[in-house]
Amino acid sequence: MNKSKFSPTQIVKILNEWESGTPVEMLSRTHGVSTATLYSWRKRYSGMEASDLERLKSLEEENAKLKRMYAELALDHELAKEIIAKKL
Q1: Which DSSP state fits 6?
Q2: Where are the domains of the chain?
Q3: CA nearest 33: which of 54, 2, 5?
Q4: What's the half-sphere exposure (Cβ side, CA atoms, 13 Å) at 16?
Q5: pTM for the full model?
Q6: Where are the beta strands (DSSP E) in 21-81?
Q7: Of 2, 14, 15, 16, which alpha carbon lies 20 to 30 A from 76's?
Q8: Which position has the higher pLDDT, 53 or 76?
Q9: Helix orientation angle between 8-19 and 24-31, rounded to the nearest 10 degrees
Q10: CB 48, CB 12: distance < 8 Å
């Protein structure tokens, strides 16, 4: 997963600007993001505070790490089963 160049507090600030009535096109120009990014941020992070967003990002990173660990263990398990099958 790519690291965002925006911190969670910046994302929340941009979304709050949008909620206060600033047009999407102006926000995308001033902050250097696409309108699609703004819409995906709103879909994903609407109603969150900066602390909630930081917690969500840390949980997503931890989840990705655990998925990688599981994949490695599953491969090791399959390899061990193949080795045992060959010896029998």
Answers
A1: S
A2: 8-87
A3: 5
A4: 9
A5: 0.60
A6: none
A7: 2
A8: 76
A9: 150
A10: yes
